[in-house]
């Protein structure tokens, strides 16, 4: 009942005739804070004044004043103030007694300990370090070992501190493992159907229309061999950057008639520098020489009609060329081309035969009414050297052969997938070994006539592409059969370029750093060379541990990887470093804790350095301590609690205070052994340093603090991941009860999600039963701290998978997958109250929206509605009204969508479901405007 106040302004004797305290308390479930104060200062003061006017106290009837200066009223005011303070702290203490409402970390810590849960102390980030060794070219260097504890420090940026990482495994290292190239060329061996080859150098003096000879060693030894080809060049393409030239012809190598196959042994390439004719090709027509009495009648065969010069035919033993070329020497090649319609190719019509000059003479000849200097060649064979095959007037002679140096065929297709062929034979590699890869992404370019193409952006919308635009290939290309994509191997993708009937789907990165998808024909796309300005991308890959993952041949090593590569590399830029060691955040500390005292139970010591490093492990908590305690040089073991430990057990337990300092406690002789007496006989070895500060980008760890012999450089090719700070209160409130539900076991589908959520390095999880053959499996979606992706090769991912197999059902198939990060855009019109600054109010609204719709507050599959957005904005101080003018996902057209849906996995008999979505507000996609 509300107190009744006096209506007389100058008399307050009846003010507060009823007590206002104790207030009635109502605390429904689920509150963030409980109400426990039975009153405030005014309530207590009014209640005491009501007692002064109560008929139950007749002795106070004479006290009619209600002036605050009266002693009695002043004492009442002082008492009300004391009760106000007492009520405030009583409420605070009451709140600290409940897990949901406690605000002090120590309160949550102590309550969690009641159910056997310790607040997570954090975990160290992990990565791999790639080392560069010094070597002397041409001098063999023995392999060295990079020892455990090799320290590398980061180069801090602004407002950052240097972080130290140490290797945790000893690994062998060699100088020739520093930068191993992948195979960039394949030995050139002519094959039927070939239409191109590569020559060394760019000064070949070749031009389109020139003829070349491809001949094998068997033709040199056996004149009757048909392993040779003569082709006319269609194009000559110098590659100045690499000092080589590509020559191409239209008519493929090999021939069905006559039956010829390309050379295969001792192949040589020659250029024919001269096109000439046989002597006599320009002889005058004897039918124009007059009658039988002329002085040339004896030279003409008049028995044929029309007349012809006597012996007007090619001499199989002495082929006379129409020109005198001193560069035609013994051993050089000539080719005779009959120029007969219907045979050969368009560029070289007729029948072609190859001859090698066994003898060469340079002389003058007078015959057929003409005289000239000729080059007489004695061929190594007389095959097909007949007048009918090679008439003097029609035959083309390709002569003056010059040998050209050939190169192995460059491999143009990019590198991706789970198989690598190294550019040389590399000894000493072993299964399971990590490799650091670095190189540039493969560029693709739109063909000059490609029109009407656009890149569908992942963030929504599209951007038009012009002919000649170049983009980066982010994932292996897929060929579309209707709407079904089929992933292509790198070689198949390269072969499909230029084909108009092939539809391709490409995942690309444009010049502005936006990711998207392009649907185009093979004829619209070509591979482009990388440039010096292209950034390098790096990753860690592992050699497979399956049967024969490493195969050597004479010139190369072939590797099978555990998983496909993350990037698509330009082949010429890719390098591998095999001098790689796993490393974790923290640095080693060795210290003496003190001396044991056998007369003291539960002796306790505190570590001098903090925080103690915990590393990711396949334990129920996902972490393991790096602390080692030795007493009299004997290693003692850590246990969660000394309760019920054997009296002589060499055990100890640890605890951390709210500041992160670690204490070590030993037994009392009844539960755990006491420390033996001795001076400075308790020695510890541990590492210090952990937390999210260790989550460094790739290439940040570059400063060698310890330098093993021969090591000159170090870096981290992949980001350091998995680092997590000490568990905050909000997560502790959620996670502490989960350990009671799972009891370090995963049985139900909820257990799998709860187990993963409490695992170090995992922030959110969603589990689903899915069909797995005749039984069922678990499909688990996970998200790292602050929404970070958990790489499949990271310690966190591997250890979580191992822990679930160990503490769950080992016969249940488990599929771990990272969540899908979905974002939405929002635009609001805000009406600001007149008394407030618009900029300040808009900042408050933006902060409220980003917090409410940030990763920490959202769950998998949680929707976003217009009403929710408006309510959050309206709650900001100084807001009078709010109107949502735009709300849509990145993959939707701009509009006001009443409810944005985030999908959850759905079990299917035909395939794996998609990962769960988490829908959050994009950082740069909030637009606010002020309503007038």
UniProtKB/TrEMBL annotation:
Please note every region of biased composition (Basic and acidic residues).
Answer: 650-660
Specify the superkingdom: Bacteria
The segments labelled Disordered in the record are 650-677, 709-730
The chain positions of domain Baseplate protein J-like barrel read: 674-723
NCBIfam families named in the record: putative baseplate assembly protein
Q: What is this protein called?
A: Baseplate assembly protein
Question: What is the organism field in this record?
Answer: Litchfieldella rifensis
